[in-house]
Amino acid sequence: MLAPGEIIAQGLHHESLRTVAVVTLCFLAVSPATAGIMIGFDDVTANVAVIPNGYGGLQWSNMEVVNNTYFPDLAWGAEAGMVSPSSVAFNAYGNPATVSSSTPFLLDSVYLTGLWNDGLNVQIDGYLSGQLVYSAVEVVSATSPTLATMPGYAVDTVVFSSSGGTHHAAYTNGFGTDFVADNLIFTPGPLVPEPPTIAPAVVGIVAATIVVRRRPRYR
Fold it and tell me: How much is the pTM?
């Protein structure tokens, strides 16, 4: 595992995004069968650690945790994006990160911050059985967390991709398009369709933009 200094030194730049296709999908509105669970990452006591599969009841890919108590003098978004002390998650090297489960779940909300960049674009794509259910883009700052609230549709995979923005001048320790995540709330399955008196099972057809990304280059 790379130490924080190594992580800071190896920033990366994303190539521009290009819209290549538009698809339409039908999806189910659901009401949660159980209460939401918050993952604050604060039980991780290591300075930097890879989030293992099964943590919090979910599967994780390219997500790590940093404990801010080890870096009290470091100016970066990991400190600014901390909603509950003392740890936050981030996508290593700014590459896409995935949260998934073998059973459908709701991603209710998550706080997002740019690790180095203001105006960072964080795209959140929810999938169910390989089909795109929703796509949202949050533009976040590097100095305070933004609460991203997701629509109430069942998914089994959520992909977070970050790009763009402008380097925050006060953060002189590193650079890149990483995002910080804290206090993620999700509702685990099983999930049930809402009754017709509340909402129809099929709520309609939505257009979702599929974006192709060029491979990032490391520096």
Answer: 0.76
Taking Cα atoms as reference points, which of 184, 105, 114, 190 lies closest to residue 152?
A: 105
For the chain, domain boundaries:
4-218
| 70 conformational bin, left if phi > 0, alpha if psi -120 to 50, beta if neither | alpha
Banded model confidence at residue 100, pLDDT cuts 50, 70, 90 = very high
The CATH class of 4-218 is: mainly beta
